[in-house]
Amino acid sequence: MYQQAIEQLPLEQLRALQSERLQQLVSRLYADVPFYQQQFDSNGLNPKDIRGISDLHLLPFTRKPDLRDHYPYGLFAKPMEEIRRIHASSGTTGKPTVVGYTVNDLELFDDVVARSLVCAGAKPGMKLHNAYGYGLFTGGLGMHGGATKLGMAVIPVSGGMTDRQLTILQDFQPEVICCTPSYAQTLADECVKRGIDPQELAVQYAVLGAEPWTEAIRKQVEAGLQVTATNIYGLSEIIGPGVSQEDFEEKGTGSYVWEDHFFPEVVDKDTGKLLPYGEEGVLVFTTLTKEAFPLLRYWTNDICSIYYDENAKRTHIKMSAIKGRADDMLIIRGVNLFYTQVEEVIHEFDFLSANYRLIVDRVGNMDRVTVEVETLHPGHAGNNDLALHLREKIKGTIGLSMTIDLKEPGTIARSQGGKLSRIMDRRT
Ligand code: ADP
Fold first, then answer.
1. Over the stretch 89-100, which tens digit does the pLDDT of each residue have?
2. Nearest to residue 371, comparing CAs of 335, 329, 340?
3. Residues contacting residue 380 through CB under 8 Å, at least 6 positions apart
4. What is the best residue among 119, 134, 211 to mutate for testing ligand 1's pocket, by most ligand atoms within 8 Å of CB?
């Protein structure tokens, strides 16, 4: 572990630390950010009302429109002279939000990424092939800083230019790679296409995040690159990558949320009511320690559950894989649908690859979803029995009839380096 004492801090002590940090945060915000002062006042709240982390639910949420209303710097809690870096979200769902970091924030960012890398299997002395985009997006520089702090040699490849990525994987022999899961699929596919034997590569661990993914993609990437692949989650508003990370020896049991810094809650997506551990809802974060751009109860829009895992190495809470963003949820003939649900069904079929996309049309008054999915082997795309089998399985598990369009291998658009959009919504 990178910071064993804190990663294994007994829960009672963790709560005490969170309580102390929350109280400090609330007074800072009230004093330094007019938006929060207004929020408190209009809700009849005083910072003194918050006596500990169990009072957090009394506070109002902060939402993306609040950030956009104060674009670009209106929610910064420190003057520009103390800001050392500015990033922005990728803008996947609209105008990007702008975030800032003080020296201490950058230190904290490095620490949580270093913790995450160790959790993913990395060790000092290893080389990191960093294929997250460098720039305003937090992925590239975020992973870079944490890996440097851990004592790894960073290869700052950035996203895209797949030829070059493969040459570097072959020649520089990195032991760890980080990128989006869809780009890891692209790299795995390209190795097959070019006859690159993964045995020639040194890469052992893949740290994948920035978009939702399921076991179907894990299977493809682990087999294709011969790695252990784990999930890293984060968002620029909270810090960037390294908000949570799955342990390479606890795969499939969820990702540790570094809750000494980022306190998670899961709430009902319609009512905002706090949900019990294990129930699925919207993930909400409070940044307990950040200086430049702290957030109180930030509504991420990401859907998952949180829970404690008694068999885990660390004491921190875990979160399940993100099912999707609330605003990416399709409502088809009254049924809620995330594309990861289809991905999970695809995983059950040995003859299908995890390269797929969903196309949504309106035919008359009816919404129609077509699943385009590649078969693993050439010549299977025309097999109606296979298509029927998949259609029935989807109907049985998700409750929706979908049109199945099996495709030949290599015919569906691949990620060129960043986040891949798996839904094509053609409804007006
Ligand atoms: P944008 O919201 O514009 O894409 P970011 O680049 O900050 O901005 O991306 C953060 C978002 O990416 C998260 O809110 C979440 O929806 C998604 N994300 C990040 N990591 C993961 C992950 N491991 N699994 C699923 N979704 C993720």
1. 877 777 789 999
2. 340
3. 351, 386, 406
4. 211
